[in-house]
Description:
Structural class: mainly alpha
CATH topology: Arc Repressor Mutant, subunit A
Strand order of the largest sheet: 1-2
CATH architecture: Orthogonal Bundle
Amino acid sequence: xxxxxxxxxxxxxxxxxxxxxxxxxxxxxxxxxxxxxxxxxxxxxxxxxxxxxxxxxxxxxxxxxxxxxxxxxxxxxxxxxxxxxxxxxxxxxxxxxxxxxxxxxxxxxxxxxxxxxxxxxxxxxxxxxxxxxxxxxxxxxxxxxxxxxx
Length: 150
């Protein structure tokens, strides 16, 4: 298989265009696989990202702080936080030093959801089972280089 077969296109302007198309196609493919993985807990990849950020931070954060650390910078963080608040996965309270801000913290239920998913990390990692650990390391270096060619 290859990108040519996947998108039914045989010719590309050059290898850079082919790589760009391949990265976009692969990112969308990976996103769908992750959505399927998270479906069992009824959360989206963006919600999962926020829960992991909050758990890792170990203290309340504003939605602005959360947005700065999100993988998808275009996400509407406030809306996503409201959705996971309704699910009981986070808690909100008025910021103690600035009443205009709201602090968000992961709830016990949110931690339980992440712990349930943590038990399935091998299944998540197996999405990239076509790559050896060494190949994954090379891919990581190439993707980092693509974003920061300096």
